[in-house]
Amino acid sequence: MNTTPRLSLTLGPVLYNWPKPRWIDFYSRIADEAPVDRVCIGEVVCSKRKPFIDEVILDLVDRLERGGKEVVYSTLALPTNKREIRDIGDVIQAGYMIEANDIATVHLLNGRSHIVGPFINVYNEDTLGLHLKLGASRVCLPPELPFESIRTMAAGNNAVEVFAFGRPPLALSARCYAARSANMTKDSCQFVCEAHSDGMDVSTLDGVPFLAVNGIQTQGYVVTAAVNHVAALREAGVVALRLSPQTCDMVRVVRIFRDLADGSTTPHEAIEALTVLHLPGPLSDGFLRGLPGCTADVD
Amino acid sequence: MTTPLELVCPAGTPAGLRTAVDAGAHSVYCGYRDETNARNFPGLNFDRAEMKEAAAYTHEHGAKILIALNTFMRAGCTDLWKRGVDDAVAAGADALILADVGLVDYARKTYPKQRLHLSVQAAAATPEAIAFYRDRFGIARVVLPRVLTVEEIARLTAQAAPCETEVFVFGGLCVMAEGRCMLSSYATGKSPNMTGVCSPPSHVSYREESDALVACVGGFTVERFERGEAAGYPTLCKGRFEADGAVSHLFEDPVSLNAVELLPRLAEIGVTAFKIEGRQRGRAYISTVVRAFRKAIDTMAVGGKVDYDELRSLTEGQRDTVGAYKKAWR
């Protein structure tokens, strides 16, 4: 008998600067149609985008909760100024379940139950244990961790979540590269990042696709897809998979991973189903296999 | 100014360490020859016996030795890092430079009196992040990320007290938040956080074309040097790429950090220590740079006039920048 717990699905926060109508439609559809257990909402990448979200977030949280989803408020990954810290304090005060993406947020939470997001460096069982003691109930591991590390860390704590779908987040900077590429600075950016809903593709000088820029964030060009590892991850004690929104049909993506987790579809069928979606890059599970994250095939 | 500024200098090898100490370093930083430190290159770093000798040499000359164990412990192999902490304490380290909070926790519990510094790799960039490490683990000094402006450093330094701040003033410049960058891992499978290397030489290759030398990292072209053009080391974030139809140094130009003109302001706002990057650098370079910075610090301490031209000339032939220390960089 399989006694491992049911694998739950987390929809990660939208990392891009989507036009407001797209953002609202996306979360509305997720609320109504996607068999996902919890939904992360909130601006993680750039605080300049936050006012747009603030206007609509209350209605969407309500709708998601009525749709049976646990709602998690994901906080900024690289807060640098007082206003950004104050905003994080405000959402903590508001009583949301918080996903901390920077150690400053863990400090502000002061032991209150929370989730640790993939932007906090948790690379081993000791550090994971420390975060659990500090009040984390679940920890989404950084995307570069290989399966061997995940297996060591997931044993016996029912707390580990793995980044399973979407362009892998690779780096954060004080500088905005979307603005820089348009000859502007972060402070005068005119929200040029809105033009790239899956990030701005970056190629090498010889035209090989390489990275994607999302404001101050750099992502991989590939799309992480842990399809071939779902069964092994569950056996290792992983309790949740994170699906990071892209502009493709995310309801379909959620259903594919739900079917995989339930054993009602095969990895092969899942890959076929994902491949026909409008993905921004090829599927990859390089990081999980301990290979370069750019490895553009799944095995 | 009340306390004299501390000049913290790189020591990639035992010979480099002696060079830095002899040139006037107040402190040197170095690491063991394995993946426990963020400069895990072949030919660099110290074995156990060399570290003990290095500590003795440093102390005999009135300087301090700071031992860096600033990568993130590998799951299932945390003993390697903990043994590093044990041995560094036994060798007489004046401080350990740590990044992984799990290792900070181990060091604090096992050696309650050991001085601990927070590595730049921990990317503590706000008063709250610093408070996390200071209040829970008694971190005595934080090395600040190179993504902050001088005014942000001023505010941080005031709020971090009694925890001291240390800032990079010269050498390599990370454009990404340190310790939160997986570009190298993505392109080569070798990562700063896990293996202690970035864009490692083992994954760099060059290709001759008719009119240019093409430099690749992990098979990805990152720079194309025209004939006669000086070929710098290809670091992923300093490469030229194409985005939105335009070719540019999208992340950063191939520049290094030189904050000499900001030294007085950094001293005024209460920064405790100035750090020079470059454990991979040769002895001649270390000697020149350390001497020049020590002279500037000594001059500032007696209210004298710093010879900025001398400091600027250190980057002669290379382009430099004050980086994020000025807000327009962003």
What does this structure look like?
The complex is a heterodimer of chains A (299) and B (330). Chain A has a domain at 8-168 and 224-270: Aldolase class I (TIM Barrel), CATH 3.20.20. In chain A, 33% of the residues lie in helices and 20% in strands. Chain A contains eleven helices and 14 strands. The two termini of chain A are 27 Å apart. By secondary structure, chain B is an alpha/beta fold. Chain B folds into two domains: 6-173 and 255-329, Aldolase class I (TIM Barrel), CATH 3.20.20.70; 183-248, no CATH class. Chain B contains eleven helices and 15 strands. The longest helix of chain B has 19 residues, at 283-301. Chain B is globular, with a radius of gyration of 19 Å. The two termini of chain B are 31 Å apart. Chains A and B meet through α5, α6, α7, β8 and α8 of A and α4, α5, α7, β10 and β11 of B. β9 (200-203) of chain A pairs antiparallel with β11 of chain B, so a sheet runs across the interface.
Write the layout of secondary structure elements.
The complex is a heterodimer of chains A (299) and B (330).
Chain A (H helix, E strand, L loop, with lengths): L7 E4 L8 H14 L4 E4 L8 H5 L2 H10 L3 E5 L7 H12 L3 E4 L2 H7 L4 E3 L8 H9 L2 E5 L6 H8 L5 E7 L2 E4 L4 H5 L18 E4 L5 E6 L2 E4 L2 E3 L4 H7 L3 E4 L6 H13 L4 H9 L7 E2 L15
Parallel strand pairs in A: 1-2, 1-13, 2-3, 3-4, 4-5, 5-6, 6-7, 7-13, 12-14
Antiparallel strand pairs in A: 7-12, 8-11, 9-10, 10-11
Chain B lengths: L5 E5 L3 H9 L4 E4 L17 H13 L3 E6 L8 H14 L3 E4 L2 H10 L5 E3 L8 H11 L3 E3 L6 H11 L3 E8 L11 H6 L3 H4 L8 E6 L2 E6 L2 E7 L14 E3 L2 E3 L7 E3 L4 H6 L4 E4 L6 H19 L6 H5 L7 E2 L9
Parallel strand pairs in B: 1-2, 1-14, 2-3, 3-4, 4-5, 5-6, 6-7, 7-14, 13-15
Antiparallel strand pairs in B: 7-13, 8-9, 9-10, 11-12
Helix pairs in contact in B: 1-2, 1-10, 2-3, 5-6
